Amino acid sequence: MSDVDITSKEMDGMGPKGTKIGLARVLGPAHVWALGVGIVLVGEYMGWNFSVGKGGAYAALIACWFAGILYSCVAMIDSEVTSTVAAAGGQYTQAKHIVGPLMAFNVGLYLVFAYTMLEAANAITFGFLIETVAGMTGHEGLDQRPFIVLAIMFLAWLNYRGVLATLTFNLVITAIAFIAIIVLFLATSPIFGASPLRHVELMTGLPYGWLGVLAAMHFGLWYYLGIEGTCQAAEEVRSPARSLPFGTLAGIMTLLIAASLTWYVCVGLIPWEYLGQAGVPLFDAARLTGSTTLMILLGIGTMFATLASANGCINDASRAWFAMGRDHYLPDWFGAVHPTFRTPYRSIIFLVPIALIFALGAPIDQVITFSILSGLLEYTFMPLNVIMFRRKWPLDSIRRGYEHPFHPIPALVLLSLCGVTYFAVFLGYGTQLVAMISFYIIVSLWFHFWRYRFVRRGAQFTMPWPRPLGY
Amino acid sequence: MDIWTLLEYAAWGLSAIFGLYIIIDWFKTDTTYSDEVLMSSREGALEAMTEEQHKH
Q1: Chain A residue closest in CA terms to B56
Q2: What is the domain-level CATH number for residue A419?
């Protein structure tokens, strides 16, 4: 950090004196990686393949590349800003410091909705997987509900008990799920003998032309959706300036590899007409190899990826909710930290029934669409955020843990790709897009005309930063 | 009663145990500590410590 005095009147807020119980700083870069990749990897196991249905195998590959560029920009921008704004709440806290309260309130809600909906979708998927396993053993008509509830309650309990155990658990199951993809690739590749891959026969052109490529972009996000979740660990890592960029950038590299391998193996084994509708494409690909070992491994990988994603989502949604409560954007009751476990326990508890309601009562496609759209709004905020950050606090005013290269090119590329993706989403889910934007406009009005009066305007800025340029 | 039916009951039971654990601990924590202590967290604690070390 720069040599500044936190008690100086030049600073933009009060010092953090009076903190008796704070979140535990116990995490390292591997936990950051596990949080980011853990949330996302389920997208490789299911979901991305709907992009094949929209435009064919090559369209899915093009979407994989462009979404990869979009998320590489997200990871670079996030690494710079969050290694500097190292506080719980991630992008919400960034928005609060850099843009303003209304943006912060919206970004906070994007985060909570994106992660809570994704958690609900993962729990639904977990129930479906258990039912599938039961069906394979001859048991029909399994009640999915107890397994959906168990997944949410167990992971909520784990999160309640402490962040170190939570993310160490995520590290183990995410690593197993990632290794399973690599094993499937190696086992099916021609490197070790005869290969079952039939790319020459199965690959076709673009069945729906370039419009199909555009439509595929919507589901192309699934390859990487959630890597920005690493920011929520900012207040719990031992060394934010090192761990956050390291974990986030290692995470996006892992996902680029996982996405490429997943696409390559699946389109080489499953005709695109079937792949575009498959529920669990990697598991189906493993079954088509005829190897029981691969089938079991990818089955376990699918289940672990689902649990890792739900686990990371509980972690992230609760941190965003906690940070908003701490700043009085929401009732300050949510800003409490458990004295023994050092977790935002009231926020974790509050979000459990919401996740249960959506997991037990809402259709999965609607839940996921709400999650994706909230994420997309968040990505649109990021380029504006980093441009303002560089203007208000130039490179020589605050020392960053990471400085992303070629600014403002990544920000402009990200903004352009977000525009393309909005159009792609509008093609398939126009009504939901309009409904959701209307929802955020209504809650913004509520915040502006009612809630903002409770926010302690000076007390919310406790970072020892110099005043922004021009203020 | 086959194994899957038993697993359904076990899942309901385990869910209840995790839920009860959380609720009981929540009640104990909120009655043992004051809100002033529980809600005393402020962002930027590490940065402030770093600054203070720089000052001394």
Answers
A1: A5
A2: 1.20.1740.10
- pLDDT in 10s for each residue of chain A, 471 residues: 344 343 334 433 334 456 678 899 999 999 999 999 999 999 999 989 999 999 999 999 999 999 999 999 999 999 999 988 888 999 999 999 999 999 999 999 999 999 999 999 999 999 999 999 999 999 988 999 999 999 999 999 999 999 999 999 999 999 999 999 999 999 999 988 889 999 999 998 899 999 999 999 888 999 999 999 999 999 999 998 899 999 999 999 999 999 999 999 999 999 999 999 998 999 999 999 999 999 999 999 999 999 999 999 999 999 999 999 999 999 999 999 999 999 999 999 999 999 999 999 988 777 888 888 899 999 999 999 999 999 999 998 888 889 999 999 999 999 999 999 898 888 888 898 899 999 999 999 999 999 999 887 777 777 778 888 887
What is the ipTM for the molecules in this complex? 0.90
- Does residue A459 lie in a domain region? no
Q: Do B4 and A142 touch (CB under 8 A)?
A: yes
Minimum distance, in Å, between the CA of residue B30 and any CA atom of chain A: 9
Residue A229 lies in a domain: yes
Cβ–Cβ under 8 Å, residues A230 and A35: yes
Instruction: Check if B50 contacts A (Cβ < 8 Å).
Output: yes
Q: State which residues form the domain around A71.
A: 29-454
Residue with tokens 């598991």, as numbered in its chain: A283
Residue A314, helix vs strand vs coil: helix
Tell me, yes or no, whether A245 lies in a domain.
yes
- Locate A192 and state its tokens: 């070790």
Would residue A17 count as lying in a domain? no
- What is the total count of domains within chain A? 1
Q: What are the chain B neighbours of A333 within 8 Å (beta carbons)?
A: 35, 39
CB contact under 8 A, B54 and A154: no
- A 160-189 residues with CB < 8 A to B: 160
Cα A129 to Cα A181: distance, rounded to the nearest angstrom: 18
Judged by CB atoms closer than 8 Å, whether chains meet at B38 and A21 is answered as: yes
Contact yes or no for A32/A237 (Cβ under 8 A) = yes
Residues 6+ apart with CB under 8 A from A179: none
- Is A466 in a helix, a strand, or coil? strand
CB-based contact A146 B15, cutoff 8 Å: yes
- Closest Cα in chain B, distance from residue A6 (Å): 7
Residue A205, amino acid: G
Q: What are phi and psi of A337, to 5 degrees?
A: -120, 135
